[in-house]
Amino acid sequence: MDYYRVLGIDPKLQLNLNELQQLFYGRSRELHPDRFARAEASVREAALNESSLLNDAYRALKDPVQRAEYFLKNRGFDIGEQGTKDVPPQLLEEVFELNMALEELKSGDDSARPQLATARDQFAALLAQSDVELGQLFEAHDGQPGEAVLKQIRGLLNRRRYIQNLLRDVHGYLSN
Amino acid sequence: MAYSEKVVDHYNNPRNVGSMDKNDPNVGTGMVGAPECGDVMKLQIKVDPVSGIIEDAKFKTFGCGSAIASSSLATEWLKGKTVDQAMEIKNTEIVNELALPPVKVHCSVLAEDAIKAAITDYKKKAVAESVHA
After folding, report:
1. Is A92's CB within 8 Å of B113's CB?
2. Which of A93, A100, A164 is the closest to B31 by Cβ?
3. Between chains, do A99 and B62 touch, taking CB under 8 Å as contact?
4. Among A59, A29, A60, A61, residue whose Cα is nearest residue A47
5. Beta strands of chain B (E only): which ranges?
6. CATH 2.60.40.10 fits A3-62, yes or no
7. Is the overall model pTM greater than 0.90, yes or no?
8. CB of B108 within 8 A of CB of B100?
9. What is the pLDDT of residues A104-141, one digit of tens each?
10. Could you give the ipTM of this predicted complex?
């Protein structure tokens, strides 16, 4: 996994963000173009490529969701594919019901605003909760890596995406 | 991005929106979704157990205009078809009918998946029914 390699760390899901930042600064200095001003063109170019990879790596790895997506993609999961695969029926039911409730509130008059605000807080809480769960699954995977945990992470990311969309929806509606 | 006239028409006047009793043995329910876009689609068919013909179809979709139009169109096509004929409906036919652009092809895939899921659910129930009978 190139993102981990360029930062010189083992591919783990749990990362200490302070350490990550320090590593990023250190590697950035090592790869700084000034240090290669007198180097051969090929070496200079290699350093430049590495440096650009480093920037991508840091940007992705410091965000737990992006990190998990990168990790899963490298483990052969099709992330970003717009398909219906791997979405448990239970989650679809839940999201469907939440959408129904939201639609009903939106079709009501202004008196439904407090309920919408409650719904928004509820989605925000669900989102926060899924972030906690993501952290727990990261820990579980790093302790004992395996396909099963990765699948759970994949499922959680899907759920999180749905909740995020609902939250954005109700947010947008309330700020109108 | 501009939607085709047909998509706009289905979006503004969706056909067969609603739901049926999912516990009815003659009703098959398909629930599918695409988390990447936040879409959820529920499609139901009601089958005449004797003739195997789909007498009614309902849907409810939360998603973009193309997802709504795809499922709306699907319910129109389903009515009057036999279950086996319905199984033959391809997403490409939906793409052609609605003139969906490439970025929206996945919406038609979702609709095809929903049809298949609803039929599978119905068949599962029919088997369970015949075992009980």
Report:
1. no
2. A93
3. yes
4. A29
5. 27-34, 39-47, 54-62
6. no
7. no
8. yes
9. 888 877 777 888 888 889 889 999 999 999 999 999 99
10. 0.87
